[in-house]
Design brief:
There is one protein chain. This protein folds into two domains: 209 residues, Maf protein, CATH 3.90.950; 192 residues, 3-Layer(aba) Sandwich (Rossmann fold), CATH 3.40.50. 38% of the residues lie in helices and 19% in strands. The strands form three sheets. Strands 8-7-11-10-9-12-13-16 form an eight-stranded mixed β-sheet, with helices on both faces. Strand 7 and strand 8 form a beta hairpin. The protein is elongated.
Length: 481
């Protein structure tokens, strides 16, 4: 995250002052349920003035049998999950409504806060992670709104992780009541007195009447833009999903692009590369996920990221049933490193021949002490394969694939090594007409109202672009406004 200015730093309330303000608000009243590490958040409220003003109940169902008895059995017999967290805040919110009469407390703003976490283990093999959430009202008797987030711990000591978790819990409760008008600001405020070196938010979802106009995909994008996390994912329904869950022990095939819009070239690359990927003996189709990845650089092609433009692209990908990842990984080897954190299964990258030329450009690896050799050691992780879609030399009409691709002479021997070891697989069942499609030209045709673009994109994509007037000059003007 960007460094705070002196004025911004001075305007941050202390943790104690946040708790005191909440405690002294005669209407804010709720429960704290914290399992896994301890009662990290509520202890701040007990230490501040007037804790009885806010705390209706606090509990730590540390024993698994007690937790199951209160919140029900988890289908997968797991406890640090989003389902467990939602069960906790739903149960406690229902309970407080049952036990406190609205006739007696007509102006109360009820909330239920919960966390379920696993801190670092004694062998320091697992760093730890957890779920935090709050269900709250900003108006009396209002339908509840929710903020649910997942965190990864980066500190190497359980007690330090507990401290960070407690601070973020206070920040979350305070932000829900006093800073929820602007979720982008709220996300930043979760890091008051914290840093991403200590605790990382890699998924966040907002729901309910307070956030009725919030698109959670934009909130995902905000996490990456602010440097809070390296990558976020959302599913075809547009909801943010936890990358660790989506990628865990999966075979992963990924396609990178700007997808502005999705073209027949993108679609054919996806279909042909996936067919080859699934032909591998080790790849189980039922345990395989395909990721369409956009980097921040993809989204910044024309300067600052345009949120409506981003959502247009996301809508097209989601409508076609794809899982989308937004990352700040400029180099491909960083994508592979990221996936390797979550799986030891097969990995595949589908790319065009022009992208492979870029990969063998040394300028991208000067920041590494081991240069391009270090990068390629990380890129071709174990059994990773590149599925190469050919390109057309428009001057000569020649089809360029791995056999005649031109790389710098210094890179030729390294390139041949990976070709000879079957790390680059040519896609031979490509669509010849798709080679003449240039996504940038398609985008310009849409803007200029040239109908020829319709033959260059999938039918559903064309239908949505026309119905919603996506990527047109009128839409661009609307975006700028």
């Amino acid at each position: 995250m960007a460094e705070l200015s002196e004025d911004e730093f001075q305007n941050i309330l202390s943790v104690e002052n946040k708790c005191t303000r909440l405690n002294l608000n005669e209407n804010i009243y709720g429960t704290f349920a914290e399992i896994g590490a301890g009662q990290e958040t509520v202890r701040h409220f007990f230490r501040a003035r007037n804790p009885k003003g806010t705390i209706a109940k606090t509990l730590s169902a540390y024993d698994k049998d007690f937790s199951d008895a209160i919140y029900g059995l988890d289908p997968q017999n797991r406890y640090v999950t989003e389902a467990r967290l939602k069960g906790m805040i739903d149960y406690e919110a229902t309970l407080i409504e049952k036990r406190l009469s609205r006739k007696k407390y007509p102006d109360k703003l009820f909330f239920s806060y919960a966390n379920t976490v696993a801190t670092i283990d004694w062998a320091k093999k697992y760093k730890g992670h957890g779920w935090l959430g709050i269900k709250f009202q900003r108006e009396p008797k209002q339908e509840y709104s929710e903020i649910i987030l997942h965190v990864q711990f980066h500190e190497n000591n359980a007690s330090q992780q507990q401290i960070s978790l407690g601070i973020m819990g206070v920040n979350l409760i305070y932000a829900a009541f006093y800073q929820s008008n602007d979720p982008k600001v709220l996300i930043k405020k979760l890091y008051d007195h914290l840093s991403t070196d200590k605790i990382e938010i890699d998924s966040i979802n907002f729901r309910g009447p307070v956030f009725k106009d919030v698109d959670n995909r934009l909130m995902s994008l905000e996490l990456v833009k602010d440097g809070i996390t390296d990558a976020v994912m959302f599913s075809k329904d547009g909801n943010n999903i936890l990358p660790a869950n989506a990628l865990y022990k999966k075979n992963i095939l990924t396609l990178r692009g700007s997808f502005r819009p999705v073209t027949n070239l993108n679609l054919n690359m996806y279909m042909t590369s996936r067919k080859l990927f699934l032909e591998q003996e080790e790849v189980d189709p039922e345990n395989t996920v395909t990721i369409f990845e956009m980097t921040l650089n993809n989204l910044k092609a024309e300067g600052e990221i345009n949120e409506k433009d981003f959502l247009d692209r996301a809508d097209l990908l989601c409508a076609s049933g794809q899982t989308v990842m937004i990352s700040n990984f400029q180099e491909y080897y960083k994508v592979v490193e990221y996936f390797a954190q979550h799986t030891k299964k097969e990995l595949g990258l589908a790319m065009g021949a022009d992208n492979l030329v870029d990969i063998f450009n040394e300028k991208y690896y000067r920041h590494l002490s081991g240069g391009i050799l270090e990068a390629f050691g990380k890129l071709f992780f174990k059994s990773l394969k590149v599925y190469l879609y050919p390109m057309l030399d428009e001057k000569t009409g020649e089809i360029i694939d791995s056999s005649n691709l031109k790389v710098h002479p210094r890179m030729r021997e390294l390139y041949n090594f990976f070709i000879d070891n079957n790390k680059v697989i040519d896609i031979t069942e490509y669509d010849r007409d798709s080679l003449e499609i240039h996504p940038r030209k398609v985008y310009e045709m849409i803007r200029e109202g040239n109908p020829e673009w319709e033959d260059m994109v999938p039918g559903l994509t064309a239908k949505m672009i026309k119905e919603k007037n996506l990527f047109s000059k009128e839409r661009a003007s609307e975006n700028e406004a």
